[in-house]
Every structure is written in C-alpha cells, then in structure tokens.
Specification:
Blueprint (H helix, E strand, L loop, with lengths): L3 H14 L3 E6 L5 E7 L2 E8 L2 E7 L11 E3 L2 H11 L1
Antiparallel strand pairs: 1-2, 2-3, 3-4, 4-5
Helix pairs in contact: 1-2
C-alpha cells in the first residue's frame, strides 16, 4: 500500500480545490477519520497505515466502523473522489 499520509494530504488538496466541506480528526494510533459533505451527501474516509476505508452515510444506514469499500492505492482513491464531486 502507498503511504496513507501522502494519500490523505492529496485528498485534502482535492477537497480544497473543489471547495468541498470536510473535517478530520487524527488519532494517537495514527489513523485519521475524514468527514466530507458534498451535494447533500455525507461521506467518511478512514485513513489507516494498511488501508483506506470509504463509506457513504445516509439516514438508512446505522453507524458502524466497518467501511463500505476498502481502497488500497491512489488510483482507487482518485476514482472515489471524482465520483463524489
């Protein structure tokens, strides 16, 4: 897996460039939780050293820590990011 911190920073740059609202929280474990709001939708990215989790959250889905998708490289991340714009 590519460096997840570089992938996180690239994601933040993408969100800023596209004027997409986001908030993130870094944990002592090294994991980063990134919340994204765009087009009346809410998304959560979980950046971890060995993977990136992605979920679209709506009123029909209960909150849990298991992501809908696992992203293992920047190409997969790029596809997800472009799909939410």
């Amino acid at each position: 897996m590519e460096n997840y911190l570089i992938m996180f920073n690239n994601t933040i740059e993408f969100l800023k460039k596209n004027n997409i609202k986001y908030e993130y929280r870094k944990f002592s474990s090294g994991s980063i939780m990134l919340d994204v709001w765009n087009n009346k939708k809410f998304y959560v990215f979980q950046f971890e050293p060995d993977r990136i989790g992605f979920s679209e959250v709506d009123e029909n889905v209960g909150f849990d820590t298991i992501p809908d998708k696992i992203l293992l490289n920047s190409d997969m991340l790029r596809l997800v990011l472009t799909s939410i714009v």
